[in-house]
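Assemble and predict.
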Amino acid sequence: MKKHNYSAGPCILPQEVFDKSAQAILNFNDSGLSILEISHRSKDFVAVMDEARSLALELLGLEDKGYKALFLAGGASLEFLMVPYNLMKEGGKAAYLDSGTWASGAIKEAKFFGETVVVASSKEENYNNIPKGYSVPADADYFHCTSNNTIFGTQMKEFPSLDMPIVCDMSSDIFSRVLDFSKFDIIYAGAQKNMGPAGTTLVIVKEEILGKSGRIIPSILDYEKHIKAESMYNTPAVFPVYASLLTLQWLKKLGGVAAVEKLNNAKAELLYNEIDRNPLFKGAAAVEDRSNMNATFLLNDAAHTETFDTMWKAAGISGIPGHRSVGGYRASMYNAMPIESVQVLVDVMKALEKAI
Amino acid sequence: MKKHNYSAGPCILPQEVFDKSAQAILNFNDSGLSILEISHRSKDFVAVMDEARSLALELLGLEDKGYKALFLAGGASLEFLMVPYNLMKEGGKAAYLDSGTWASGAIKEAKFFGETVVVASSKEENYNNIPKGYSVPADADYFHCTSNNTIFGTQMKEFPSLDMPIVCDMSSDIFSRVLDFSKFDIIYAGAQKNMGPAGTTLVIVKEEILGKSGRIIPSILDYEKHIKAESMYNTPAVFPVYASLLTLQWLKKLGGVAAVEKLNNAKAELLYNEIDRNPLFKGAAAVEDRSNMNATFLLNDAAHTETFDTMWKAAGISGIPGHRSVGGYRASMYNAMPIESVQVLVDVMKALEKAI
């Protein structure tokens, strides 16, 4: 039976990524060796790393603009620490927008380093919207925001223009929509949504902002050291980087970020239209801030939960129960999800309406 | 043609790990989903993580002795930082044995935190031996050593008994020989030698030593937070952890660490005997400190290099050029390497002797 995988992450990836990466485990590049047993310094893997780094920049329109792409370990959670270590001056300050659980985690780590100003927060409304109308202290060393909030189903549609470095955690919507990415000085993203399997983190850094904090930075947390070592300061996560490259190659063949954005818009429109039309459901997030990646919604009457759950399971859907912070349902529609899978969910919602 | 993979790491793994992990990428546990697209919170992956953690302790004889096993990200290089963050008191000191490049890297990171005493170093002899006869300051917060030095081909055969926590980087020889592992309070190891593919790091911690440094530790670097979260503080490297579990299961079926130690001893004896017998070669490391994992050796006459290189390549051997710090050759014979592959190398060495 066909599966419709709505997991919030790690999540659905293109079938060709599964096919090609399974093949590379048995025989990589026809070398007679598995991708799991080759040196990260081997010519074949250095080529993988180089292509993944340059393709990430190309897909975001950031080639030849002073940026470097790195594939690091530790997830976005380690970047919560690396960002202030590299950018916050001794006795300086940082400005953070608190739009959800992960933004809040980033703020917590920044507080170890110095004054951390939360310019706005939607915590009181259980993060059901993106805060707006805030001002950022002009003397902050940098501004940090989170472009998409997986748990709450909200997504930033606009970003401020500021005279300071802008850092953005794009873990859950990178490569899903066209933005002027050159507005940002650091973009980071755990691979496990639109880029690849769990185990590597893409970090894109504008080189000119580094080396100004005056801090002594432990080697493994120092972006300059990782750039100098061409993302091989220590052994990278070979297989996750390779599978990420396959996913980026698939995206390029599809037509790049602009092409997938159209598909993502169509999927989101299809589902949100049904959430708004169907009298049994309501959306969880403020309409103007709705995420095109993660749609959060609730049954108006919790008494229908068991019936609905039985119906979507029978349709081959998995991964849509909502996060415990929100309840209800969360349908994650990352790049690799076909619109046909969204139609299956919409059909189940319609069928529930008829059945009740 | 059969390949004989002597790569120093990432390195050879058992064929059944390749077969089973490729299958799991196409269809994991007959779920119809790939291991690359499932949530780390799914029942099936939680079971993988739990089994990997308990099997690691079981294979080292550390169950029910107050230890916890974690699969973290960032490699041994991040542990260089986490160890002092968690163990070195404010104004305290740490004692390190400098036996090679990685030990030296660990020392460098510790110096960010406080007084770091190098109790002994073999750096002056290009790390061709393990320093001995040192004394450790009684007031150190912990003692750190590196059990096997991949680059130089040396291995600690004895460990000191001390009234302080002992921390050991066992990245390149964990699960290869029987030791009294309960002598150690923290053992860490990047997966990519005897445990699995690159991308995850095993950290084994004796819980009672934690929480005593008085430091405020960033969340992502805090062993106590990782233990509390059962090694899921943030998204783990799902596939590398799964492939590590497969490797540990293979080792258990083989008879565990004692069984593989016999095989490793036989492989090392076969190769070192030839290095010592064959007048064309000499070993690079002090005989009493020779590593059973990485045998470093040189041609007595560099003029034979081209001939030898042509011969081993023709025999299907790969990965034996030595590290640039030592030169010559390095044959890495990790757990998964069959003795037949070592015999092929020995035969090439004998053939060279005849040819010259």
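Residues 256-277 of chain B form the longest helix (22 residues).
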